[in-house]
User: Which sequence fits this backbone?
């Protein structure tokens, strides 16, 4: 028996950050991780490896199509897919080893195996060899993350019909890829293989891509992707995927019903969302309540209905984002240490790491309109930005939404090169309740892409200078 102040189940971004913060605050902490390496889905088969391939494929495409416009002649680039995959694996290794080092540095005890909550205060760990250890603890944090959402009637084999995991491991560039789902994961991984030479078709049940994204931004982004060669079938559902020779036959039909058609594919990527991972945790026996979507029910302090058991990240309600889980991990650690942990769910940025990137924070125009608040919108296109012109990166725009009466910024949405970096000045502004005038009157360095953020803000309370 080991006595801890806190045992964290899962070492994804939420879990390992929670454990490190708790240890830094003086709590005796342990983690339980079923994988051989730390970092969860994000570091092992999600955010990090996908960004490695996104960047590498962007460089490949730039060398093949963008260098000549800049006066650089290099000839046709040759793809070394094994080399690209090695870069991906090296990136994974560096990150997961870094997390292991940080846990050790902060004196967090590490238990590898599957965890089962026997009751409040007791976690049983089953190691790979079948041996069992019971950890005695004052508090438990469930940070087990999420798993892929299956498509009914379609069996994922991770060879031809793949999830995001299999899409990161293909050993050759497919001729045709059908992506089921027009969300972040599908668009990111679809764009990787599209840049490397595949013909990509995205099938989306809704009438727009990036479901919860601002409608105007979604439409603009779809136009940009179409220009890059991605085909879209919106308001369409996949009814079956069957093997046909060496390929696949994907039957689709209108979402509301009607005559179907068959799409040929070499690879089908199923990316229709993710579901909370609670399998095998013993939550029923421990009395931990779940909601109608299988998520762990918590109160405003991350506490479940059982004293001493808490939950964070993808396994609870809210956006399934690594940084949201990290902030929750810090907040619950602070709370357990007697401090006032808090997460502002109104200011959580989200990014689609395609090229160009799409980034947003706060409310969409549709959400503001539905709330009944009078609002103003300022926009500025990168076609009018000097730095964007210099880099041949004029696709996209910045959109700022503010309260018409108070001028407080309610939402910012960006499509453009580096949008994922630019969004954070909007996040900081909104954390302090800032106005569009605060943003528009803040001096921005010239020439930068970020000047477009300033100009869009000026478009709310006055007029842009350069448009």
Assistant:
């Amino acid at each position: 028996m080991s006595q801890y102040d806190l045992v964290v189940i899962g070492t994804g971004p939420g879990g390992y950050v929670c454990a490190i913060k708790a240890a830094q605050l003086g709590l005796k902490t342990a983690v339980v991780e079923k994988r051989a390496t730390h970092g969860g889905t994000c570091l092992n088969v999600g955010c990090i490896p996908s960004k490695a391939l996104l960047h590498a494929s962007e460089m490949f495409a730039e060398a093949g199509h963008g260098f000549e416009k800049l006066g650089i002649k290099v000839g046709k680039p040759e793809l070394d897919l094994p080399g690209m995959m090695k870069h991906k694996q090296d990136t994974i290794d560096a990150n997961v080893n870094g997390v292991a080092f940080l846990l050790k540095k902060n004196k967090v005890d590490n238990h590898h195996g599957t965890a089962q909550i026997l009751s409040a205060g007791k976690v049983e760990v089953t190691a790979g060899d079948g041996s069992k250890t019971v950890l005695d603890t004052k508090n438990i944090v469930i940070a087990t993350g999420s798993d892929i959402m299956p498509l009914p009637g379609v069996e994922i084999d991770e060879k031809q019909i793949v999830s995001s995991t299999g899409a990161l491991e293909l050993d050759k560039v497919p001729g045709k890829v059908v992506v089921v789902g027009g969300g972040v994961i599908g668009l990111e991984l679809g764009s990787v293989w599209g840049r490397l030479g595949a013909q990509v078709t995205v099938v989306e049940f809704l009438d727009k891509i990036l479901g919860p994204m601002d409608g105007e931004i979604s439409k603009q982004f779809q136009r940009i992707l179409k220009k890059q060669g991605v085909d879209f079938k919106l308001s369409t559902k996949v009814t079956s995927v069957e093997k046909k020779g060496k390929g696949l036959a994907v039957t689709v039909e209108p979402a509301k019903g009607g005559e179907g058609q068959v799409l040929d594919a070499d690879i089908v990527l199923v990316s229709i969302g993710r579901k909370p991972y609670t399998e095998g945790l013993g939550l029923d026996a421990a009395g931990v309540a779940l909601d109608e979507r299988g998520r762990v029910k918590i109160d405003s302090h991350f506490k479940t209905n059982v004293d001493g058991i808490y939950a964070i990240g993808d396994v609870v309600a809210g956006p399934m984002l690594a940084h949201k889980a990290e902030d929750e991990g810090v907040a619950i650690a602070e709370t357990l240490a007697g401090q006032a942990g808090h997460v502002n769910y109104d200011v959580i940025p989200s990014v689609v790491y395609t090229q160009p990137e799409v980034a947003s924070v706060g409310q969409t125009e549709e959400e503001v309109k539905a709330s009944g608040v009078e609002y103003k919108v300022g926009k500025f296109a990168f076609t009018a930005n000097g730095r964007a012109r210099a880099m041949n990166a004029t696709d996209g725009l910045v959109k700022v939404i503010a309260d018409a009466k108070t001028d407080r910024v309610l939402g910012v949405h960006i499509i453009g090169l580096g949008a994922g970096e630019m969004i954070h000045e909007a996040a900081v502004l909104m954390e302090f309740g800032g106005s569009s005038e605060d943003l528009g009157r803040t001096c921005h360095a010239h020439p930068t892409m970020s000047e477009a953020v300033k100009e869009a803000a000026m478009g709310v309370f006055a007029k842009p200078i350069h448009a």
Q: What stands out?
A: The mean pLDDT is 97.
